[in-house]
């Protein structure tokens, strides 16, 4: 579910690390997107302005899917602030409906591919960054499209506050190994697992229907947790 693209050094068009599957938008989603999104959307083409005026820790979730995890996390932590990034319009509508139903007001939304936006953000902005179940691109020829690559890992490190946490999860074993290799080699990040391996699921990470369905099918989930040291 990532919303990122990685530019090639050859001057060719960027390689997208997601497939834009818009799907069907319900009438309720269309209504809430029209009515609520303008006030909650973070414009990616403008200089960064903190919606909370620097008064709160901010968690960024990249590729929030249908918003189930992000809405639950924000509802459980009303004293914290959250930004969710997602390109898929039905997912944005789903999150907005959940926010409306639960009275959640501590989420802002990036409804865009966040690659260019992230490059413009100031250092040490986020207390936590979450990436769950990004597109695995399982075929060998596709793996250059995977989100977790060296350049992107360096961006994640830069955007975390010192002591801030990076949380990732995937149910693809070979992608989990790639993440582990890339992130263990990223300067300024330390694996919170004492063996530099996979972690227990973080207490704040709420299993979604997507994850529960995968577990019923016998899929293992690999969690990785890193902290910015410098």
From TrEMBL:
Annotated catalysed reactions:
guanosine(46) in tRNA + S-adenosyl-L-methionine = N(7)-methylguanosine(46) in tRNA + S-adenosyl-L-homocysteine
- Give the enzyme's main class according to its UniProt record, as a single word: transferase
Where along the chain is S-adenosyl-L-methionine bound? 61, 86, 113, 135
Care to name a GO molecular-function term for this sequence? tRNA (guanine(46)-N7)-methyltransferase activity
Pathway(s) it belongs to: tRNA modification; N(7)-methylguanine-tRNA biosynthesis
Keywords per UniProt? Methyltransferase, S-adenosyl-L-methionine, Transferase, tRNA processing
UniProt binding sites for substrate: 139, 171, 208-211
* UniProt GO cellular component terms: tRNA methyltransferase complex
Q: State the superkingdom.
A: Bacteria
UniProt keyword Transmembrane, yes or no = no
Q: What is its EC number?
A: 2.1.1.33
Whether Nucleotide-binding counts among this entry's keywords is: no
In the record, the note on similarity to other proteins reads:
Belongs to the class I-like SAM-binding methyltransferase superfamily. TrmB family.
The protein's job, in short, is: Catalyzes the formation of N(7)-methylguanine at position 46 (m7G46) in tRNA.
Q: What is this protein called?
A: tRNA (guanine-N(7)-)-methyltransferase
> Which species?
Acidithiobacillus thiooxidans ATCC 19377
């Amino acid at each position: 579910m990532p919303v990122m693209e990685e530019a090639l050094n050859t001057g060719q068009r960027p390689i997208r690390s997601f497939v834009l599957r818009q799907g069907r938008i319900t009438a309720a989603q269309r209504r809430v997107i029209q009515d609520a999104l303008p006030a909650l959307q973070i414009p990616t083409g403008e200089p960064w302005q903190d919606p909370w005026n620097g008064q709160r820790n901010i968690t960024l979730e990249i590729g929030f899917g249908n918003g189930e995890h992000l809405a639950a996390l924000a509802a459980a932590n009303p004293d914290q602030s959250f930004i969710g990034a997602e390109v898929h319009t039905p997912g944005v509508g789903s999150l907005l409906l959940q926010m409306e139903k639960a009275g959640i007001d501590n989420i802002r939304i990036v409804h865009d591919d966040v690659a260019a936006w992230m490059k413009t953000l100031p250092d040490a902005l986020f207390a936590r960054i979450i990436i769950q179940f990004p597109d695995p691109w399982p075929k060998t020829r596709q793996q250059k499209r995977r989100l977790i690559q060296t350049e992107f890992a360096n961006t994640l490190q830069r955007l975390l506050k010192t002591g801030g946490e990076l949380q990732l999860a995937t149910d693809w074993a070979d992608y989990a190994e790639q993440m582990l290799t890339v992130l263990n080699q990223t300067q300024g990040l330390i694996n919170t697992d004492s063996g530099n391996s996979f972690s227990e699921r973080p207490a704040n990470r709420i299993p979604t229907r997507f994850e529960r369905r995968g577990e019923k099918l016998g899929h293992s989930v690999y969690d990785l947790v890193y902290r910015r040291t410098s």
